[in-house]
Amino acid sequence: DQALLEVTDLKKHFPIKSGIIQKTTGYTKALDGLSIKVNKGETFGIVGESGCGKSTAGRTIIRLYEPTSGQIIFKGKDITNLSERKLRKVIRKEIQMIFQDPIASLNPRKTLHKTLVEPLKTHNLYASKREQTNKVKEILEVVGLNASFINRYPHEFSGGQRQRIGIARALLLQPNLIIADEPVSALDVSIQAQIINLIQELQKEFNLTYIFISHDLSVVRYICDRVAVMYLGRMMEVAAKQTLFEEPLHPYTQALMSAVPVLRKKGGQQRERIVLKGDMPSPANPPKGCVFHTRCFKAMPICKEMTPQFKEVKKDHHIACHLY
Ligand code: SF4
Ligand code: MG
């Protein structure tokens, strides 16, 4: 069908090194089996508590991290093992990333002009310097900044402006897919709304597809079409946004959602708050069976023994849980 991106059982394990000779003594299973299909034009959310592997997911999909195993198909092409050179040619233009702290990735000694022309040069876009400069000015205005800002330095901008710069940089090469990793988490609430609206407007204007990574469920509820819930490197549930927020099936999702204020529910009842016991275990030593069993309020004996399959239990509603 119209999947722009198809990820199958993607894993990223980081070696744990110790001792003088830095021997590998184990692995942190930061991402341990991500399977998602992202359709053209949608905003696909990835949510979960910090440390659940959602950032690793984003960075592995875009091949900033080398995958340990699994497969990434983008526009029908297998990009899992493409060399950096081929990646640059084929993919680096078409998939871009927006980060939580855009300024950390901007060189403080370079003007916006210098920083933003660089990718255009790398990809041999726009023949003359003048055209490149004009392109940068145009993009600045597209994201709501003044073209005259082009000669300023990163520290001269506010938080919201910096994120607009991050977005401008992502847009420069006219990508199809943008992976946004907590793009508004560092901003004041009033600025968050502006940036979220900008992200949505740009989607329409440029036919963008987004993967939106966030721990903030109210932002996700506002912007996403479908959502994947992750826990300890794995997927717990994937469903359409409304289904996920109103009828979550997985106990972990139910716990997450119980903390979100209900807007309007039949009978006007507030959901009962489900407080999970304990902390998330270490991804270096995940529990056997269902990785959530140590904190699950519905755990059964089988949950300690067998890993539940990730399967479709209702139309377009997937979960990994022995209850279903
Ligand atoms: Fe809970 Fe068992 Fe389902 Fe895991 S498989 S979420 S432990 S009921
Ligand atoms: Mg993160």
UniProtKB/TrEMBL annotation:
Molecular functions (GO terms): ATP binding; ATP hydrolysis activity
Keyword Flavoprotein applies: no
Coiled coil region boundaries: none
The keyword Transport appears for this protein: yes
Keywords attached to this entry: ATP-binding, Nucleotide-binding, Transport
Matches recorded under Gene3D superfamilies: P-loop containing nucleotide triphosphate hydrolases
BP term (GO), one: peptide transport
InterPro entries for the chain: AAA+_ATPase (IPR003593), ABC_transp_ATP-bind (IPR050319), ABC_transporter-like_ATP-bd (IPR003439), ABC_transporter-like_CS (IPR017871), Oligopep_ABC_C (IPR013563), P-loop_NTPase (IPR027417)
Taxonomy, superkingdom: Bacteria
Stored SUPFAM superfamilies: P-loop containing nucleoside triphosphate hydrolases
Limits of the ABC transporter domain: 5-257
Family affiliation: Belongs to the ABC transporter superfamily.
NCBIfam families: oligo_HPY, PRK11308.1
Name the UniProt record assigns to this protein: Peptide/nickel transport system ATP-binding protein/oligopeptide transport system ATP-binding protein
Annotated organism of origin: Pseudogracilibacillus auburnensis
